[in-house]
Amino acid sequence: MNAFRAILGKDLRVELRTLQSVPAMALFSVTTFVIFRYGLDRTTLSGSLAAGVLLATVLFAAILAINRLFVAEHDEGGFDAIRLAPVDGSALLAAKATALVVYLVVLEAIAVPVFGTFFLDDWAGLAPLAGVLVLVDAGLAATGVLVSSIAANSRARDLLVPLLLLPLLVPMLIAAANAAEPMLSAGGPSYAGTGKWLAILALYDVVFLLVGYAVYDFLLED
Amino acid sequence: MAESAAMQREAAPAAESPSPPALAIDGLWREFGDRAVLGDVTLELQSGGSLAVLGPNGSGKTTLLRILATLLRPSGGQVSVLGCRLPREAWRARGRIGYLGHEPLLYRDLTCAENLRFQARLYGLAGDGGKRIGSLLDQVGMSQRANEMVRNLSAGMAQRVAVCRAVLHDPELLLLDEPRSHLDPEAAALVEPLLGTAPGRTRVVVTHDVETGLAEANLVLALGAGGAVAYAGPANGLSAGDARAIYGGRP
Predict the structure, then answer these.
(1) Closest-CA residue of chain B to A81
(2) In chain A, what is the greatest distance between 2 CA atoms, to the nearest angstrom?
(3) Which site in A17, A177, B126, B202 is 20 to 30 Å from A38, CA atoms measured?
(4) pLDDT class for B4, splitting at 50, 70, 90?
(5) Rounded distance between C-alpha atoms, residue B221 and residue B64, angstroms
């Protein structure tokens, strides 16, 4: 637990000090919404289109942070420093995943109201949408940490992360979009059929968290 | 020199000691892809001993040190560090080793004190190592810069903080890769009490400073084109001239 807190605290402190990830993610999201607004030539969105625009934007914004997640560990010797200590690899996995969740929550606190302003007549669906976003964040964190740690040692990191990550995220995006669609429907939020998709989302998160826990020590080996 | 080398290689493990050796290496080799970088290293170093590793660039010195630090897996052979077989029992050795490599292993966007506090938490030191961190920074002359970002430090100053990082948890085994690099003579003297020979301190030192390396070592490992040869120390016949020959006659 000490190591988890140390690594998480270090990551959040560095992010607060350097603002390398979250501002870029927020700016990317707002810009994407502007592009969708004029690209689709629509002032309101609802249902599957609204869910798709919001979730795809969050997903692509997350890739910016996932790309950078292990940069300091790779470039400044953090991997070695942590592997020299009596620390279980899962502490690094958990700390990085938690840091990514924190970044995503901050991003969503900015991006969702902007999305509502740009595209929604009725904001009532945004409150229940928080549940979907929490599960999406957990899934992004579980898969993102795995892929980012694999790509960290590659010079083609910026290419590898989306190349490996996006196919893995397709099932999660399908489940999340289907769960969010009735919440953002034109006639106000409904919850018909969301339970099944939320369960699939939760299962996706659990599977990737377990996979990460099982293989992470091997990923850290040189 | 070859005959002397073979004789000394046999002599090296002959010293008997009741405690298990700090290092026991038998036929260790490592390759990256098809390229062998370290071949057939065999030696034994007792607790409290000092091993100097000599050899030209690319002879595998850093690779050897990284294997002993549990950062690299050996390709073959047997390696035991502090009684732990590598790589299987690496987790038992971690935390008992202090490693000072070419990179300082410090985060550039944290201050010196924050970096050391981070390390102290990883090692579970009481009170996040507060007193020890202050004392170490003071010993290496960096207490005035404790709250300065590492990115603003010169290479020599970062090296001094890296020395503090390596010894923060009072390790049983010190693995030092050219520990005096970037340091001016004054700074080298400051870190000497932390890294130099001392009773009960087991050290493996990679160095190009042949005279100092020989003077400090109980055991010398020469890595080069001819393979790896362990000598039982300068007192048993390895002269500075012999050692220079390891570098092909270069000083």
Answers:
(1) B105
(2) 57
(3) A177
(4) very low
(5) 11
